[in-house]
Known about the structure:
alpha+beta; MeTrfase_TrmA_AS; transferase; U5_MeTrfase_fam; tRNA processing
Amino acid sequence: MLNKSLLVNNISNIEIARLNAEEVIxxxxxxxxxxxxxIDINTYNFSHILVDPPRSxxxxxxxxxxxxxxxxxxxxxxxxxxxxxxxxxxNFKVEKLALFDQFANTEHLEIVSILKKINQ
Length: 120
């Protein structure tokens, strides 16, 4: 579906890679993956990272990785772990926040926030 969308919209400046959080951390640490053989991560100038963790929130390794970026887009389905993680990301400031009630008549909601690193 993503490949088709890129084609239909004539987008050619995006590389697609499906990786879990541990693999992303390993890639930024220099590990090579066969499915990433044609992508040189060092040629990119990343300023943003998007995280969409499970209900348990971010683990400390991901929080350490996130701290290497200037901007963070955080999607969460659990307000409790979102608040916990935001406190741990104390070198970021929440710039924008939105709540989405995607599951009507339930207690579940999605939080999407945009955070920017605080210049220290």
